[in-house]
Amino acid sequence: MHNFALVMLAAGQGKRMHSPVPKIFFPALGKPLVWYLVNETEPLAFGERFLVVAPSFVEKAQGFFGDALKIVPQREPLGTGDAVRSVLPFLGEGIESLLVLYADMPLVPGGILQGFCEFFARTGCDLAFVVTSSLNPSGFGRVIRDLQGRPLRIVEEKDCSPLERGIQEINVGIFAFRRSLALTLLPLLENRNTQGEFYLTDLVALAQDRGFSVAAYEVEWSREFMNVNTPSDFALLLRLLREKKLESLFSQGVKILDPEAVYIDWDVEVGEDTWIYPGVVVEGKTVIAPCVRIGPFSRIMESTIGKGSRVEYSVVEYSRIAEDVQVGPFAHLRPGTELAPRVRIGNFVEVKNSSVGEGTKALHLAYLGDATIGKAVNIGAGTITCNFDGVKKNPTFIEDEVFIGSNNSLVAPVRVGKGAYTAAGSTITQNVPPYALGVGRARQINIEGWAKRKKRDG
Fold it and tell me: Among all residues, which ones are annotated catalytic?
């Protein structure tokens, strides 16, 4: 394959997607849609690989694929034939043939592409394209053959006559042709069609007219040939990708109670005998160890979760959870959170950019931000680390075996020493020494008879 250039066409305007972002960049299980095609073709060792995009998206494409692909702009949206023309000046000397396909076909198997290239080389033809038959050919160009069965031309659906629309043999959208043919025929393409564009598919008829040899590579219809042209197509693609991902997880012993009710990104790793309950979303490069329970209704993003831990009805973002930890229900771990083994983070507790030591508990209604918390600490209900002074974030340090009373405000920067207690209802503004009791509340005063006087005066 070293003498082949792979050309992926992605410069279409995507009007049917109703989005200013090209569909190839749509997120599909945590990857840009076109990534799946790029990844599938990488083992085939093409001599060069090109991605053709609109000029305004060259930088974005280079950010995603700059190391793997050569990004080529199509200066004007003049059609697929013109898009291939834009690549010709960038072809290396050793490139003899081009394999061209649409970038909105992310599920095309690498085996089909390899088999097609081998067919092209074996037949020695000048141009070949992949065809299949479908009971529902809607959306695809129809293949027109002569009485001897030779492929004469491809007619795009918008240009089909009523009779041609009834043809079930379709162009999949994968072409191979000699570099010499491309240099000769691409400049001859015309745009006399309903779209006013230079169709790559017109190369078939043009090649026949000019005496080049043309062959069709027949394959069985597969849903992997689908093009993503509409929001409905995109939803179907996501379903197919999810099926693939879930099958791989099932094979690893992961238990998913309702596969239709979970969303798991492509790069997520899940260990054996982890149970995933309905309503779960797991995103990014999250790593979940064996024997974990996730859900119901939890969202995990770019985090690690240790063996035997449990997360339910909670949001975990960019956090690291050790083994045998319990999170939730209704907890929120924000970026920078690190929980040591056997930590318990309970109802309506928010933790941000904090490390929590082994065996520590914060079970109700607390905010722990920019805090370093030691082992075996008890965080009382209603505790708040007051970390922001209006200008900068300040740290709170709570050492091992501390008991923080309920409804405490710890005004950072502040440190509570090992084994210390703080009284319920305290506002702690000064460091508390080890094994001391910190009390930071106003003295209670009872005014006798006040309620009766208030009623009488009212």
Answer: 364
